[in-house]
Amino acid sequence: xxxxxxxxxxxxxxxxxxxxxxxxxxxxxxxxxxxxxxxxxxxxxxxxxxxxxxxxxxxxxxxxxxxxxxxxxxxxxxxxxxxxxxxxxxxxxxxxxxxxxxxxxxxxxxxxxxxxxxxxxxxxxxxxxxxxxxxxxxxxxxxxxxxxxxxxxxxxxxxxxxxxxxxxxxxxxxxxxxxxxxxxxxxxxxxxxxxxxxxxxxxxxxxxxxxxxxxxxxxxxxxxxxxxxxxxxxxxxxxxxxxxxxxxxxxxxxxxxxxxxxxxxxxxxxxxxxxxxxxxxxxxxxxxxxxxxxxxxxxxxxxxxxxxxxxxxxxxxxxxxxxxxxxxxxxxxxxxxxxxxxxxxxxxxxxxxxxxxxxxxxxxxxxxxxxxxxxxxxxxxxxxxxxxxxxxxxxxxxxxxxxxxxxxxxxxxx
Length: 414
Hints:
By secondary structure, the protein is an alpha+beta fold. The protein has helices spanning 13-17, 52-56, 106-115, 129-132, 157-162, 205-216, 243-253, 263-269, 308-317, 353-368, 372-379, 399-410; strands at residues 33-39, 45-50, 61-65, 75-76, 83-84, 90-91, 97-103, 118-122, 146-154, 166-173, 186-192, 195-200, 223-227, 257-260, 276-284, 290-302, 328-336.
């Protein structure tokens, strides 16, 4: 709290401003090789063939690596290990990693990547939660297209709506959002004396070490993750991306290997913010007190799990907003589709639901003919309030104090 209200200079600001901060692409070693990933161009289908033997013969190409050459686990994931490091056969989204090409220099790598040809058997995918939940939809997850389903109930929802003088019932949609951090993904790996060292800009070096050790089938104490300067993240660097690929290439070639994404590959490869479809039905009594809330939230988690479970759980927990509502019925689902996979991005599901519950507050205030700020003040949490999950708030409940400040500025009599 000592920093609140003060101008604080970030510890890494000076080196970044004068250009001395070291990012992965600033790191070089003697005899360093360069690697790149051939990614799927279709959202759903089976890989029939890749011209690996032909690519191996091209000038400057040192290795072409497919899933059969991964020493350990061929999938990764922060919670569920469902994301292919290199696909075995099925692709479930545009951008799945298929083969890894390693070359002596950037020019040779660039030419080789242009020559990689992948033959697919393409299938009809699903690109909306509605289609993914149909009985005849192709199953993308582990026996189901529902990754996660959470229910939060308190009070008596039917009696709650019977008390209501007014009810607002609406659907709200939020869009998929790209992190677009300034520094695209890059990693450098080297393998010396049975130890793999990976230089990467990451949010979770300890997760990275675990995942690299799994895919290499070596002990974690044989993996060193060195976190370089990070050019933005916002949650987008919580999943593994180039780490395992650089490690595998260095292990197989026994030379340092660098991987550097273009902006396009960065955008295609990493997770996005979950788009959500939200049904809200909110009831209010004649005296202005909220009495019932029914919510259904459908989050499109894309082709792989990432943090989808945590994101939809937080969306459900925060679905009632900072308001006292005695009767609540909430359900939230994370649903697999063939869209880009979604995961962590600032707020973890708590950022989508305010669009819905605050819009409901404005609509109900209008029905009651009450100023929306007064209506919020009447229903806001305070110390001692019980949330929809049953949590009793005992401290740091500043909602009413915040509203009082706004009302004072706008000269509104609460």
